[in-house]
Amino acid sequence: MFQIRTDLALEARELYREGKSGEVPGVEVEKSEIDEEVEVTRVKIIDEQGSSIMGKPKGSYITIECRKLKSADADLKDKVSKILAKEISKLLPKKENMSTLVVGLGNWNVTPDALGPQVVSKILVTRHLFKMYNKTQDPGMTSVSAISPGVMGITGIETGDVIKGIVEKSTPDLVIAIDALASRKMERVSSTIQIATTGISPGSGVGNSRKELSQKTLGVPVIAIGVPTVVDAATMTNDTIKMVIKALQQQADRESGFFKMLSELKDEDKYMLIREVLEPYGANVIVTTKEIDKIITDISQIIANAINIALHPGIDLKDVNRYLN
């Protein structure tokens, strides 16, 4: 059986709950609406049963949803940066003189996959300054290094091996990895940010998972930050059919057997049917939005600002924006 492609824990939970009234066993969920524009959902997988059902490792998954993120103005970008920074800060190790390695995963030559490299280009790196002046601590800043290792198709080397070598040499206390993800819903593409304490598998968003980056493989905690930038054609077609059915039902007899059958068909069943039709023709392609260039630029700035604020307590958004500009 085909599996609906999604990297979001929020959507894995939704898939399980379709047609069910209870919560996923072994999973705790907390929702908070920041305001009319931003909603935060915290999904925590607490045991092996929850991990098996969700298809994800035990840990915390925080999702920030903002429908206007695709066309955010400066004020909204600053607001989301502050919310994201606050969530990242809660996950940082309680350690003095902490050092962090920021990893931008993805292919800088492919725009929907260039989120990680673009974030790294905006990170305020300080490790070399700490080394140069032989400092171990600073009241307003921490030691931060950053790398965008490319993808195996460019380097010929497993990304996980590259990062592991850097971690062994530079010995950070924490790794923050940024990557593009895949969603099962068009409405969440480029409007959702997920933070996970479980690490990440490079390339998972396009169904090409490589060696995972996690505490198990790297020996240090890994915080993964991802944004869905693509959906597959079957997902897009499924969402389109749902909208068409809804529009037709508004103009037709709601009790019609045909429309009733379509509306009661589970999303997973529709997705499987559509994908089975598309697969023989090689038509189940990966799809992104036409404004993806601007979107990646804007969201990379939001994520970089949040990381800079969280890792450097002595600076604020005004300082960060001045540095980046």
What does this protein structure show overall?
This protein is an alpha/beta fold. The protein has a single domain (24-234, 286-324), classed as 3-Layer(aba) Sandwich (Rossmann fold). It is 41% helix and 18% strand. It is built from 13 helices and nine strands. It has helices spanning 9-17, 48-54, 74-91, 115-120, 127-132, 152-155, 159-170, 215-218, 233-251, 257-264, 267-278, 292-311, 317-324, and strands at 27-33, 39-45, 59-65, 99-104, 143-147, 174-182, 192-196, 222-232, 286-287. Strands 1, 2, 3, 4, 5, 6, 7, 8 and 9 form a nine-stranded mixed β-sheet that branches. The protein is globular, with a radius of gyration of 21 Å. Homotetramer. Keywords: Hydrolase, Protease, Zymogen. Residues 1-7 form a propeptide. Belongs to the peptidase A25 family.
Strand content: 15-25%
Profile the largest sheet: 9 strands, mixed
**Low-pLDDT residue intervals, each spanning 5 or more residues:** none
Number of domains: 1
Keywords: Hydrolase, Protease, Zymogen
EC number: 3.4.24.78
Protein name: Germination protease
Subunit structure: Homotetramer.
Topology:
Elements: H1 9-17, E1 27-33, E2 39-45, H2 48-54, E3 59-65, H3 74-91, E4 99-104, H4 115-120, H5 127-132, E5 143-147, H6 152-155, H7 159-170, E6 174-182, E7 192-196, H8 215-218, E8 222-232, H9 233-251, H10 257-264, H11 267-278, E9 286-287, H12 292-311, H13 317-324
Parallel strand pairs: 4-5, 4-6, 6-8
Antiparallel strand pairs: 1-2, 2-3, 3-7, 7-8, 8-9
Helix pairs in contact: 3-12, 9-11
